[in-house]
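Notebook p. 47: complex prediction with FE2/S2 (inorganic) cluster.
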Amino acid sequence: MAEFITVGRPDEVPEGEMRQFQVGGEDVAVANVDGELHAFSDVCTHRQCSLAEGDLEGTTVTCMCHGSEFDVTTGDVLGGPATEPVQTFDIAVEGDELKIGI
Ligand code: FES
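Predicted complex, structure tokens below:
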């Protein structure tokens, strides 16, 4: 069962932006899409670039390195060169605490 770990505050991730957090030894990206937060592995499955440093357009993150696209809500690949999805994580906001389930 996932253990929820506090990583920061929800207002650290403004609408339309992404931030990277370290949680349980993993690099996790959090994207804010229209006020809704989504957590997924920050490590692109192509060549391990940080997805949080890429571009967020709606629910699609584009890797800055070679342009792979992933759906931040499911982790699915929307465009290559990546072929493997990224892992997604549960996320919870309690008061001013942002928690990621890992
Ligand atoms: S490392 Fe992300 S597309 Fe190549």
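Notes: Residues 49 and 65 are 7 Å apart (CA to CA). The chain has one domain: 4-101.
Next step: compare against the earlier run before touching the bench.
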